[in-house]
């Protein structure tokens, strides 16, 4: 059973999403909190994971990040990783107080950018009893240097500085496309061909609130964000990391190296696919059951 929900952040922004409850009596149920990655909205396959987990006996809260999708917040398209981390924690607080939810059994799930967020949340918030991090961002600094050509870095830094000066003078924040539209050389936040194919492909029929633009400041904050630094602090909370071996967006070698810095209990699942393929097809059919079983193992009643 899925219902539309809305809850307020501590600073009064309305976040909107879906709350799934198992189609069974009983409870209270363990709950999994999930949000999507950089600019993505909940219709971009979060529902598939949420429905799968709910069928296994979990309540699931899946919501749009602030400034994106169905959620409120200004400026539109602003992606502040630390604000999104705080909103995850607010989401835990809100859903834990819902009827039929067992607040002592909370899991968090994230993918791509939010795959980095849940590493931070799990390390900081001991209400979290289990975490799954799928194709995560590990290091904004290192990852951005894989995505941006070396001879373009100086120009990007100059654009950041010019935007900062303009905002200080009272102008609105500069905007940049998430992905290129026709020309692969077009400046954009995520300049890979599979990003273009994913965001501008058939998914748009489902994700009607997605927009191909974010603030330039969002890209600057991306380059400064280091969620992988929190990996050693997650223990004793159980961590599952799902890595796509062919991932060149949140590059797989950074994720695999970072996994070694996490302490037990932990589990690594490597999928023989690219970044966006982790959400669908055979990869989903392998990964979703493994993730479900990880949550079942660690969020069962004691």
Automatic annotation (TrEMBL):
The keyword rRNA-binding does not apply. Keywords: Hydrolase. Belongs to the AB hydrolase superfamily. This is Xaa-Pro dipeptidyl-peptidase-like domain-containing protein. It comes from the Bacteria. Pfam families: Peptidase_S15 (PF02129). Residues 11-154 form the Xaa-Pro dipeptidyl-peptidase-like domain. GO terms for molecular function: carboxylic ester hydrolase activity. Gene3D superfamilies: 1.10.10.800, alpha/beta hydrolase (3.40.50.1820).
